Amino acid sequence: MTDADPRLTEMIAAAFAPSPPRRLGVAVSGGGDSVALLHLLVDWARGSGTALRAVTVDHGLRPEAALEAESVARACAELGIGHDVLRWTGWDGRGNLPDQARRARYRLMADWARVHDFADVALGHTADDQAETFLMRLARGSGVDGLAAMQPARRAEGVLWHRPLLTARRGALRLWLTARGIGWIEDPSNEDPAYDRVRVRQALAVLAPLGIGVEGLLATAERLRRASDALRHGARDLARSAVTGEGGGLVIDRAKLDAAPAELRDRLLAQALIWVSGADYRPRYQALAQVWAGIAEGKRTTLMGCLILPRKAALRVVREPAAAEAATEVAVGQIWDGRWQVTGPTEPEKKMTIRALGEMGLVQCPDWRAGGLPRPTVLSSPAVWQGTRLIAAPLAGKAEGWRAEPIKSEADFFNSIILH
């Protein structure tokens, strides 16, 4: 054993204290970080009573990847734990490959976790990953949130993702593996300077003599994480005083919004766009700046499938009608557009569905103004259809016994500012 052994095992125990999960998934690529995590978790699970299952994502981008996944499967079999391989086939040769692969990896693993009834999944991120990510985001001009330290645990896509080795150094993990006679696979792309992360890793070695090393960057990232937490709470307090829900959209009091610091205004508007659109990520700074420019001129703007309607007293963020009409049509009883639950006098033989009201439906609702909702909100609201025949439009004065309820409340929006 090495001197790193007790520190690493303590990290694992602390990460899941005081109540270890009953079942835990662990992502294992075959590299040194994830292989060390796997073996550390196996040792820990024996005393905690936690059932483990491993997963490997094969992105299909390298011919060696399938063999590496098989190697992980053999290692898991020897350890007596289950293992699954998930394959991604979504790369079309366009866009940012590392970013698309990362998002796909999390989606696949979240689906896998739900299938196997895992609420928790462990990832092998290390202190070195933290420092490299900090520099990469610094190069992209990220703000406080982007530069803030990764969280040891974060909930996303219905899963609590744990990073129990977030303060461990990559070298310490490899020493621990070597001392135990455990092998791992080195991905050749980790030495390919075509990737940003590899160049950043090389730059860290150059910056170290200047005092810019992993430990210093981690300390800075942690201070920024604390600042980010404070700003999130400030934005939530602003939202509680200035925001109300309306027809699936949000209404923001202009006087309270304009009186707030610029950073809190940005956060509130960005989260409102995420909330209404159902997007996973906040808009880029330049895109948000263009929306603010439109608001200053009193012009309606669109972003992320949302329509932003500036008025003197209030700012409305509503679903863009075109985006709502593009949303998948669903059967009655299913969630529509990720936001609405529609209920009413269902008649199965009529094969009714839910889709946006749109212009074709609006002309059949002469009393749509009675509800006091803006026209774009009504156009993007859910309606009950039987083919091309409009059955009901609950938000457009044609309820016919049907109700349309947002699946998320104002309180959910306020809390999302903290959690997102």
Briefly summarize what is shown:
This protein has helices spanning 4-15, 32-48, 64-79, 97-115, 127-139, 144-147, 170-180, 196-207, 214-242, 254-259, 262-277, 285-296, 321-326, 358-362, 375-379, 410-419; strands spanning 23-27, 51-58, 82-87, 120-122, 153-156, 159-162, 243-246, 249-253, 301-303, 306-310, 314-319, 330-331, 340-343, 353-356, 382-386, 389-392, 403-406.
Task: Write up what this structure looks like.
This protein is globular. The model has no long low-confidence stretch (mean pLDDT 92). Helix content is 46%, strand content 18%. The two termini are 40 Å apart. With 420 residues, the protein is of the alpha+beta class. It has three domains: 4-125 and 163-212, 3-Layer(aba) Sandwich (Rossmann fold), CATH 3.40.50; 242-321 and 411-419; 327-406, no CATH class. It contains 16 helices and 17 strands. The strands form four sheets. A six-stranded mixed beta sheet has the order 3-2-1-4-6-5, with helices on both faces. Strands 7-8-11-10-9 form a five-stranded antiparallel beta sheet.
